[in-house]
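Predict structure. Chain length: 93.
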Amino acid sequence: MHGYTHNKDDYAKRLRRIEGQVRGLARMIDNDEYCIDVLTQVSATTKALQAVALGLLDEHLKHCVSEALTEGGGQADEKIREASDAIARLVKS
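Prediction complete.
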């Protein structure tokens, strides 16, 4: 079981909302909307995706990494490396 399983419906709802935002962005481009308005919506969509990513990362740390640390050994090292890599990817984006 993954750490986000108990919040799966919330994540799915948020992602569907983001999907709607992206479709709205495409419509804005099709309708030749003002650049700043499009950029504002891009920023809002980016922030929404970042919020999902941070939520998933938090769930991963609380569930997967914590469980691996309790078990110890190589599994713990692997989960910490995965989390560190994920954080590095988020910071770069």
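Summary: The mean pLDDT is 93.
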